[in-house]
Amino acid sequence: MKVGGTKMKNIKPKVLSDNELLKMLKEEYMQLKPTGCWDFFKRRKKTPSLPYLKKRFGVPFNKILLKAGIHEKELNFVRRDKEEYIEIINNLYQKLGHTPSEQEFSNNGYSPTVITKIFGSYNNAMRECGLEPNKYQSKVSEGKKELLKIYKDISNKVGKPVSAKELNSFEGIYSATVFSLRFGGMNNLRKIVGFEEAHGGNKSQYSKESIIEILIEEYYRMKRHLTKMEIEKNERLPSYITILKYFQVMKIADVWAEIDKIIIEREVLYNKNFFDKKNKTTSNSETEIINAGTIGERKVSHYLSFLNPSSYKVYNNIIVKAGGRSQQIDHLVIGPNAIFHIETKSYSGYIYIDRNENWTKTTKHKYELLDNPKGQIQRHEQILKGVVGEEFEIVSILAMAHKNCRLLGLENTALNVMKVECILDFITSYEGTNSISDSQLINIKGSLENSIEIVDTNVI
Asked: I want to staple 249 with a disulfide (CB 3.0 to 4.6 A). Which of 66, 106, 254, 446 is the partner?
């Protein structure tokens, strides 16, 4: 497809008309024939990002596709029931000739996370399809209590505490590495179960506490998380695998999540005047909500502090007044590509948005309806436009700060909803409809600061 003799891939989406952009989307969608939203955006080459499309058209992705002229029958972005997934898995088995791994399932355009939510675990789904699960499971669905029972049952069956080598010889059981990482080593696992520890070897020079302090020091030195390679090369730190064992996790991202939480909590405690004295009269449940919200906002501030200060101006926890009204804004970022308004939520559990844009939260013991944040965000945008003017683009982000938050149904909302770890990439890579000049940035900052009542300048 060409526009004015120029190949489409060389055209920025903001110079295209709505009809031209929708035509490009339809052509690529019909060419790829994706199995879902996730599959489409993983493979698309020309179409802009999902946040850009939702921001431009102001409706969920399904409605954008209908607007592009794609028939409803062609849409695959629907919630499937268990029977449909069983059929999909069996078809994939016939295609591959063996039980599909999670990676193969993902490569064919489906989400293993959804399978886990419906069946309890990926291998449970394989069993319900009458297939033999893969020997080693890459995704660990069981908690520590269940893993302890598995290890204890196997050991009782054998008649002795099983070794790492023996664990690896069992079919359909997690590898010894999984147990070692979850429980801080095989010796610690034996101790927890109540078996006698194996003796031998040198006592480690590290403790979890010492590793935490070194990682925090290195974090401030590098001004970012260290990569696996940097950890391996760092003479102050043990190996990457050893760190995972001490933290009893499977991924280095979980280690850094714990480190980030410690940094943020220390900052909150250090600034004891952050809470007004009146909070002392609140109930325990109210205090928990306040603390969760505060830590969430501090986490966002922590990430925003790594934006280039010569390009972006960051405001945290401000009250903006305009036209006799006022609104509390969690975070505001002014940059050359747009003005970014960030609302922080500290929800945990599965957050699902249905086709009617109803929000629900599901945790292990509770299911509840949530207020749709669209109204709150629109109020914030209106008051900001009253200060900076209608001509400047305001991009709103709903940042989910809790590490145990899982987002589902994002294709059903036009809001830019994302985990807090994604906001930096989103802001720096965002292509605004119009760039903001240096002189305009100065004027925007001046207008905004004249309208601010309270500013939290204590950025982590």
From this structure: 254
Calculate mean pLDDT across residues 261-269. Answer: 68
pLDDT bracket for residue 319 (50, 70, 90): very high
- Which range of residues forms the domain containing residue 339? 309-451
Q: CA angle, corner 411, sides to 2 and 371, nearest 5?
A: 140
- 432 and 314 within one domain: yes
240, 350: one domain = no
Q: What are the respective helix, strand and coil percentages of the chain, to the nearest 5?
A: 50, 15, 35
Residues 168 and 219 in one domain: no
Mean pLDDT score across all residues of the chain: 79
Identity of the residue numbered 300: V
| Statement to judge: residues 315 and 430 lie in one domain | yes
- How far apart are alpha carbons 75 and 87 in whole angstroms? 18
Copy the structure tokens of residue 185: 């080593």
Residue 434: Cβ within 10 Å count = 12
Are 216 and 314 within one domain? no
pLDDT, one tens digit per residue, over 367-384 is 888 999 999 999 999 999
Please name which of 179, 263, 187, 364 lies closest in space to residue 255, comparing C-alpha atoms: 263
Q: How far is the C-alpha of 97 from the C-alpha of 75, rounded, in Å?
A: 28
pLDDT above 70 covers a percentage of the chain that reads 82
Question: Do 99 and 56 share a domain, yes or no?
Answer: no
CA 35 centroid distance within chain: 22
CB distance 193 to 155 below 8 Å: yes
Whether residue 443 sits in one domain with residue 376: yes
pTM of the model: 0.47
Among 404, 297, 414, 314, CA closest to 361:
404
Residue 298 counted as domain residue: no
Predicted local confidence at residue 398, as pLDDT: 95
Residues 329 and 255 in one domain: no
Angle between helices 186-193 and 176-183 (to 10 degrees): 70
- Report how many helices (DSSP H) and strands (DSSP E) the chain contains, helices first: 20, 11
Adjacent-strand bridge partners of 331: 316, 342
